[in-house]
Amino acid sequence: MRILLAEDEAGLATWLTRALEQSDFRVDWVADGRMVRRAVRDTRYDALILDLGLPGLGGHEVLADLRAADQRMPILILTARDSLMERVSSLTEGADDFLAKPFELAELEARLLALIRRSRGSEHPRFACGPLSYDAGAKQFMLAHEALTLTPREHAVLRTLIQHSGQPLSKQEILERVFSDEQDVSPDAIEVLVYRLRKRLEASPVRITTLRGLGYVLESTP
């Protein structure tokens, strides 16, 4: 899952980015409210963590700007302004959740996962596609109730696909979501990994289908 973090405290942002990446999130960080719209325009994010006290353009203005542009990704407000009025105004303006500083990392991760699941129309604690499921907490794939053994890169690609099951992802989108910090991975490597995953899934009804001009989509046949 790819997250945009809008936070002007460099120390907090660096720590939070590293912590979330250890839990399989990919995090892009901006420190100025004016950079949020540009980031959202250029990249498809699963959620936004938004601080209210941003320079350039405040969090409330960023929130209003995104919702006015019909940007529907989940937005979690993360701020030191912990008051009932602040919570009510943020939620009224279009925020999906509100978490006050200081906070526990486990709670932030749980709230993010819940927001992303709800945005996809599912409250199920696991991501699933037919008999294939992924437990984000255990970081484990199950296929027809049996653990699926994958290499780290296969795991990363399949995790991205199941988190967007039914939605096509281009090779470049997969590359950016999975290997953004690795310089030695090319789009051709994604083709190889998808081929390997197809071999692992070939005895099941789960398929990775190529949609010409759109990319790969994970789906389950009847």
Task: Write a structural description.
- This protein is α/β, with parallel strands linked by helices and 222 residues long.
- 41% of the residues lie in helices and 22% in strands.
- The chain is built from 8 helices and 11 strands.
- It has helices at residues 10-21, 34-42, 59-68, 84-92, 105-119, 152-163, 171-178, 187-201; strands at residues 2-6, 26-30, 47-50, 75-79, 97-100, 127-129, 132-135, 140-143, 146-147, 206-211, 215-220.
- Strands 2-1-3-4-5 form a 5-stranded parallel β-sheet, with helices on both faces.
- α7 (171-178) crosses α8 (187-201).
- The longest helix is centred in the middle third of the chain and has 15 residues, at 105-119.
- The protein is elongated and about 55 Å long.
- The relative contact order is 0.11.
Highlighted features:
single chain, 222 residues, alpha/beta, 5-stranded parallel sheet, 4-stranded antiparallel sheet, 8 helices, 41% helix, elongated, Response regulator, Sig_transdc_resp-reg_receiver, OmpR/PhoB-type_DNA-bd, transcription regulation, phosphoprotein
Helix amount, in percent?
A: 40-55%
Reported for the largest beta sheet, the result is: 5 strands, parallel
Q: Nearest-angstrom radius of gyration?
A: 18 Å
Give the N-terminus to C-terminus distance in angstroms. Answer: 27 Å
**Which strand order does the major sheet show?**
2-1-3-4-5
Number of strands: 11
Number of helices: 8
Sequence stretches where pLDDT stays below 50 over 5 or more residues: none
Based on CA inertia axes, which overall geometry fits?
elongated
User: What is the mean predicted local confidence, pLDDT?
Assistant: 87
Label the structural class. alpha/beta
What fraction of the residues are assigned to beta strands by DSSP?
15-25%
Q: Helix-strand pattern, N to C?
A: EHEHEHEHEHEEEEHHHEE
